[in-house]
Amino acid sequence: MSTHAIKLSVNGKAYERAIEARITLADFLRHELGLTGTHVGCEHGVCGACTVLIDGQTVRACLTFAVQAQGSDITTVEGLSGPGGKLNVLQQAFQDHHGLQCGFCTPGMLMTLTELLRDNPDPSETQVRDALTGNLCRCTGYGGIVAAALAAARRLREA
Amino acid sequence: MKPAPFDYHAPRTLAEATGLLATLENAKVLAGGQSLVPMMNFRYVIADHLVDLAQVDGLRGISVANGAMRIGAMTRQRELELSAEIAQHCPLMRAALGHIGHRQTRNRGTIGGSLVHADPAAELPAVCAACDAVVEIASMRGAREVPFAEFAAGFMATAVEPDEVVTAIKLPLWPAGHGYGFQEFSRRRGDFALAGAAVLLDMGADAVVRRAAIALCGVATMPLRLREAEAQLVGRKLDAATIRSAAPAARALEPISDIHAGADYRRHLAEVLTQRALTDAAQRAGAAA
Fold it and tell me: A12, B29, B179, B215: which could form a disulfide with B281 (CB 3.0–4.6 Å)?
């Protein structure tokens, strides 16, 4: 059982911790850094609730060990809002379009869509649905989430 | 946390990686981790050591030379998806990539990891079977090249020994303008295929088949080539009747039955998907012209 000193940046803030190799990035964010916005659902890479960005790319934080994130730049749902906790365009669209109910899947949905809208500012509904296949929602359903993504894309293009 | 405790190693060179694998007991190689880590989280796999290849020099990238494409084993599936070389030289792989998991898993998952994990339903092993890929393997004992037909050794089993590392995959190129088709059926997008078919076709201007490759996934313990059906196609014009006559070869298989699908249903899927993939390949090869 090896212990490792890691340095990484989360939402622009630098952290250094000594951790056990088997700590997943999801558990590291939640238990070591107290960033509990990243949710842990299935813990085997199916539900997408734990999705975060590593160097701008979405990953399942339950399928990545924190030690693998050494030196990288991580964005979690806590990094999306503006000063004073002001919701960003995508987050606001979720609220406006009933894109969440219980909210458990929401952080993962937001991170997946953040990547999609960055890479493809004008996605079709099919492309949005395809991007969301890796994120499960068990209450609201996907209608409101897809509507929110398309509305956010429109607003971001107009901005 | 879910996995059992282990020691983590992040070698910087291939020599360092193979050195660790030669000396450590019960070590596993960590590539993208998208299959290994779930198995560790379930404790299906309990390793004493993980040797992470992410920092090892020279295991990533795609190059084309001397009629073959060489893909570094640690090249991420997402990189393959975005690669102009893959789109141009191996469009079959490009077509298959869209069926693999999700963006989040393709961002991490690697081609080498997929081949060594050897899930019988996985897409990349089927593509490698169709392409007659050659797998480059290294260890402290030396380097060797293994044809894919020998690499795939059974249910989730390969020719890779515990002290070895897959370093690259070499795909002999098919002629420019060749036909290709990849078809699979899964219950939900991104799930493992219940069955899938990968087809390559080389046809003359007269629409007569010069060479064909048909590989199936999900219907046996490992990817299967339908060599008799391929041989039957050669020298024939690929019209609808020929395609219908080739597909029943898929029915002679003895697929696995599990909670996802019975053997009969998989046989049916294999036949239908083979027919569809052949039709796609024929159209792309310009058979209609």
Answer: B179
pLDDT in tens, B71-107: 999 999 999 999 999 999 999 999 999 999 999 999 9
Domain boundaries, chain A: 3-79, 83-158
CATH architecture under which domain A83-158 falls:
Orthogonal Bundle (1.10)
Q: Which residue of A has its CA nearest to B6?
A: A1
CB contact under 8 A, B6 and A21: yes
CA gap B115, B155 in Å, rounded: 12
Give the domain ranges of chain B: 7-52, 62-172, 180-284
Which phi and psi angles does B225 have, rounded to 5°?
-95, 140
Tell me the CATH class for A3-79. alpha beta
Q: Which residues of B touch A68 (CB under 8 A)?
A: 30, 33, 52, 54
Residues of A at the B interface, defined by Cβ within 8 angstroms? 1-2, 4, 20-24, 27, 43-45, 48, 51, 57-60, 62-65, 67-68, 70, 112, 115-116, 130-131, 133-134
CA B80 to each of CA A34, B63, B90, B100, B243: distance values in angstroms, whole numbers, following the listed order: 36, 12, 10, 12, 30
Query: Residue B22: what are its φ and ψ, rounded to 5°?
Result: -75, -25
The reported pTM is 0.95
